[in-house]
Amino acid sequence: MDPTGKHCPKVPAHDPLVSSVPLFDPAQLPLRDWCAGSREDAVTGLVAFPDFHSHIPRALASALTSGGLVGLAIGDVDGLKGHVEQANATDPGCYGHLAGNKVMARLGAVTRTWFHTQPWESGCAATFGGDEVIIAAALDDANGFHRAVTQLRDQLADELPVRVSFALAFASAEHLPADRGAGGWKHHFTDQLLAAVDRCLFTHKATRRATGGEGGIIAITQPLLVGHVSLARDHRTLLPLPAGAETLHVLARPAGTGTRGMLLLPCAGPAGLRGKRLRVTFPDGTARTAVAVSLHGQAAVPHETAATDAIEGPGVPLTLQPVREKSIRGVPDDLAAALEKEGLDWSVLPAHEQAQTLHLITESATADIRTARITAVIDAVATRTRS
To answer: Which SUPFAM superfamilies does the annotation name (predicted)?
Structure first.
């Protein structure tokens, strides 16, 4: 019954709020190895933040000191306050905050199911206790974690009346503090990681509100390195640059190279000397084409202001999209689609090889021969790109 004395509509048996208050079945908590023995958050059924915050520093420190890679993501519901206010105004049978709790209960149920399908040997899913979710896991590769969080984002979009935006970062041993003596360094280090991801998330959300963009994004950032080193050394923590129709939201950090200012991206640098052309959208909504180059293996784009100019906040929120390179000759649709799917640049082949390749494809006697020749071309372009 709500405070007005009216009865709320009877909830169906599968309503996630029913099974989440209280759940407590430890087997259903979204954890593997990390944070064992934790209590659940009563609404979401995720690991409650006090226990997460108590256990996770030791788990992170152990994983990183042994040379492992860790992914950390924070998701925040977009527009939950507006959803609650709308429910309050349009549903006379139930007060709005119950609608908010139902959103969070469903978020928790979807996250728990998703978490138990992941291959991670160590990890957990927790919440701060508001409208957030925290994912932490020991990883084999960064790209797999990015894909997994994207899958969770999409599942939540299908299940909830509102979207959820995420930010994530990757940490390795190089991010550990040099002074790791007594004095609670593990908790301080964990708080720094959480703060870096949280700032990235809310920087992008503020930009979205200012420019009228859509929610449900996934933004990528980097934790600060030991001793304030600006360039990443462990390339496992870097994601690939976007390819095909992919869009990447990143938090870029300034770095000076002589007299030229650059923005470092949390992505691996492109192979070769030509760089990779990207369509870059800036916080004010303006977009321009820039060439990303590799600085010690990390991608960077030119920054118009001087290298000595200060950038306020944790970095510059950018949206990155690939630019499809034009060919000197017309590329058949099936070859173009195969190149785009693999994120390959046709122009790495010399002009005479392009001409020979196109001749062989267009002169194929059967569809099977054409398919086989296109596959061979893709392999050749991939080999040339790596060399």
So the answer is: Nucleotide cyclase (SSF55073)
